[in-house]
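Weekly modeling sync, notes
Attendees: S.R. (lead), two postdocs, one rotation student

Agenda item 3: backlog of single-chain predictions. S.R. asked that every request posted to the team notebook include the full sequence so nobody has to chase files. The rotation student volunteered to paste the first one in as an example of the format we agreed on. Action items at the bottom.

Example entry:
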Amino acid sequence: MAARKDAANQVIPTAWVLEAQNRWRPEPPEGIPMCAMGVDASGGGDDPMIIACRHDGWFAPMLETPGREIPLDSMGRHCAGIVVANRRQESAVIIDMGGGYGGSTFEHLRDNRIDPIPYKGAEKSMHRTADRQLGFTNKRSQAIWQFREALDPNQDGGSPIALPDDPALMADLTAPTFEVTPRGIKVETKEDVIKRLGRSTDRGDAAVTITGSDDAKARMKAVDRFQDDPSVRVALCNIIAGGVGITLTAGTHVIFQDLDWVPANHAQA
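Predicted structure, as returned to the notebook:
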């Protein structure tokens, strides 16, 4: 992978993923909770269930459950149990609903008082690139491009993303290509990527799913009105598209807009 030449229209440069892997350490940053879980649901058989867990910019090793280990007659309940067993700090759970495989898991989580966030990559996107120059043809294009922007080492302060040394994840993230259309950036369809690679990009999908949902209940937008006070520490988890998760310390002042849901552990703050 390191010696491979990138395609001219490759969305995520290989070098950026390598840099993120070089930043990775075996343990998450001290004091940083799990902020979100991206779930790529299984269709059974040879199709595994993949979960990407994120602590701010640090990604845990991918959690994989082989499809053959998931009972077909209770797939949703079984997969929901795996999510619950690995969830920490009331982290957001974002489920890829493409292909219809995530629906049952979604319902079982909701029935158990966990409010999962649906990610539907084919839906229309209202977002634009970080420089505001281009839009996106759909949410999948938005999610993958925003992951590219998060990995960009040229941003102010450098990239905060740290990825585990996972060759399959590397291959998945660097596989999609893109084109610029009159409607904005269009990332190569998952079906075309699968045809070209001969396999599904489950690990990459789980990672970028975290940035791909615009569900209203995930829209916690912290307005940038923090005082220039060095004693104020704010850790932003820039992981839920359309909003942020936050870790607060005493004395931090935050204004929320368009907010109809707050995780229980942040309600008092």
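Discussion: group reviewed the output briefly. The mean pLDDT is 81.
Action items: rotation student to repeat for the remaining queue; S.R. to check formatting next week.
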